[in-house]
Write a structure and sequence with these properties.
The protein is 44% helix and 10% strand. It is built from 5 helices and 2 strands. 1% of the residues are buried.
């Protein structure tokens, strides 16, 4: 059982509804194109099981993909070094400050 499925089952067990489709925001337009169209070319042939899992979830309506500019990507506050000006703004987006 995948981590996502376990998480859904957990929320079900404590009676917290999960709205579907779950939004998946990405600042990589090529990734969004691969997920939504399924077009694999010679540059993306190495993509394996994880890619297929995401594509299946998108096709079944469990997730929806959308573009978010790098400057507005809230996860960046926890995943990359940011300037002292940007860091508090990103944490604010995540509700951590």
């Amino acid at each position: 059982m995948t981590a996502a499925k376990k998480l859904c089952n957990f929320f079900d067990s404590i009676q917290i509804p999960i709205a579907l489709p779950t939004p998946l925001h990405s600042n990589n337009q090529s990734t969004i194109n691969l997920i939504t169209t399924g077009n694999v070319n010679e540059h993306s042939q190495h993509i394996d099981t994880k890619y297929r899992f995401i594509c299946d979830r998108h096709e079944s309506g469990c997730i929806s993909t959308s573009y978010i500019p790098t400057n507005e990507q809230p996860a960046d506050g926890l995943t990359k070094p940011l300037s002292p000006v940007k860091f508090p703004a990103f944490l604010g987006h995540l509700g951590l400050m």
